[in-house]
Task: structure prediction
Amino acid sequence: MPDSAVEIRNVFKRFADHVAVRDLSLSVPAGSVYGLLGPNGAGKTTTIRMILDILAPDEGTIRIFGQPNVGEKITDRIGYLPEERGLYRKMQVRRVLRFLAELKGVSGPVAERRITEWMERFGLRTPEKDWGLAKVDDLSRGMQQKVQFIGTLLHDPELVILDEPFSGLDPINAQALKDTVVELKRRGRTVIFSTHLMDSAERLCDSVCIIARGEKVLDGSVEGVKQTRGGVHVALALDGAVPTAVGAVLADRALVRRVDDSNRFFEVEMTDGSDPQALLRRLVDAGAAIRRFEQVQPSLHQIFLQTVGATGVEEGMTGHG
Amino acid sequence: MGKLMVVIKREYLERVRTRWFVIGTVLGPIFFSGLLFVPPWLARREAPSAQIANIEVLDATGRGLGARFRTALRQRLMDAKVPPTGNTDVRVLSVLEVPAAESAAAGRIIRKQVQGYLVLDSGAVSGNSARYVGRNASSIGDVDRMTSALRETVLAMRLEREGLNPARIDSLTRQRLTLSTERMDERGRGGSGRSTIIFAFAIAFLLYMSIVLYGQAVLRGVLEEKSSRVAEVVLSSIKPSTLLAGKVIGVGAVGLTQQVVWVIATMYIGSYAAPLLRPEAEGLPAGAGGGAGAAIASTLPDISIGTIALILGFFLLGYTLYSSLYAAMGSTVNSEQEAQQALTPVLLLIISSVILIQPVMLNPSSPLSHAVSLIPFSAPILMPLRMSLIQVSSLEIAASVAGLVLTCVLTIWLAARIYRVGLLMYGKRPSYRELARWIAYRG
Result:
């Protein structure tokens, strides 16, 4: 197997009134969990649709497992969970799943066996109740999401692409999804997912690519990204109300470049060459009740805010462009 | 090919399983066998009923016109091989007694003792007027028979007064002439007139209905996939053209299944129900019941297997043409309401074919009829209509089919390109300019 599961080179995609993707190049290492990060309207969904050959790029090439991404041979190896989920509402759950599996070239009996396995695993088939015989419409939203996820994995794809998988999931389903992603990676599968939730990306991803306004801002392994976007970061937690003097220290631009104030928790980015110890001394002098003071690597969230900035979110763009 | 089959299978099975399919399939044959029996029923109304003789004649002429009428009527029924049941009761009375006799006769009609009564007075003798009141007054056949019997009787009486020998009069005035009608034009014979027209109209109307119904089904299917967002999952596995083709073929197969069931069941019901159409033939010599049987036979005009295959071919081409348009339009909209607006141009095309059914039926050989059976958008309905009315030259049929096939190919290509973009495009309905741009998108 080649090193890259997906290799995108100099891809452009233009629509009538805007450029959705501009000169995008990225490489998804095989067997990794890869995060495609960006604000709404950044071109994540368009990129994913181009990988899946639902849309064709105007320029550039996309290769999957070293081959051009066209034809059944390649698309049968990919599982896709779109952001906007949907199933045939009036169909029986089991028939929908079998249809999705057969579309990926899985034979009937194999599909039936796997459907049973997955439904049992996700609690949709218990000795008391088999939801497989119900209509999609009769299922709760959470159950429909599970069914859709099962549909993505029935053909045991080598590459799984999840577009905003966590949006709209309750904590229990989100946990089940996360567990499955981890298990897929353990079995050597490649998982790409797009999200704008940096916390889940930071915990799950081996590598990331941040895009904004259709362009790549940075990419690489999560560790590498954190190192190159280095700077010295401090995680700071305070007790009680923040005295004015403490606020003044944090606002000192000679010492502190940026502060992300989450009320009781602060992520502080130091200016180049300044010493965290100096910050600690001044905070103590200012009378801060410090519960935690720790020199840390910048969070993906901070890097995202730094690189994309507030302007990265363009008005009026949707994820469907 | 395998994945196309997967799509076709889903479209087919999910539709065949619905309640509406089952109801439609069961009700269809009942409706169509009704249609099949209207012409013989009409024909039967034109034949005299046996009950026609079971009437009262109130003869106030004082010249025995009533008795002579009875003889003429019975003779007429013998000639038509419809043996009369019941007796024609002639009451000779004065003009003053007529009102009382009429109300007595009316009572007997209500008690179903007689079919009706005929009032003959001086008006009848002078050849001007007579009056009939009865249950069968709306039966064309019965009234025709009575009128002509009465005319003959009056004529005979007049001739007798002029001094002609009654026996001579009888042989001179009695005639069994029947006028049988058959269509013919410069291309030759084409079945018997009335039944051919009804059959042709039924064919054209069925074609129109099927194309609209199954086109709508395709549209709803596309809309469902788009609005439920399932389209994107499906498109990650197959090309939009495969999905479109699978849908059109799947729905078409459902239509074909339904129609095959309809035809077979209608023929089955027909073969059982046919004898019920001639109850008056029971217990009579075989020849006597022949009239109604022949009427049924004549409702199925002389249509060859080749013509049926051609008509089926026109249905499939017309369905393909229109359903791909319906699918393309369905992919550009987000709701049923929007769909009705977007469909207007397509509906105009198909409804104009329906409006043209009448002019084509009136004159299937006119230049207009030639033209519209060659235009691909009206040909699927109007060419089969012409073909079941008259002999259309094979050259013309070939030209019509060729034009239709070419248009189909073009339409499918255009529809696939609109469908491909439209399926993932939400928001405002595109203008025609935007549609043109969609068609031009690469990929």
Notes: Chain B has 18 helices and six strands. The two ends of chain B are 21 Å apart (CA to CA).
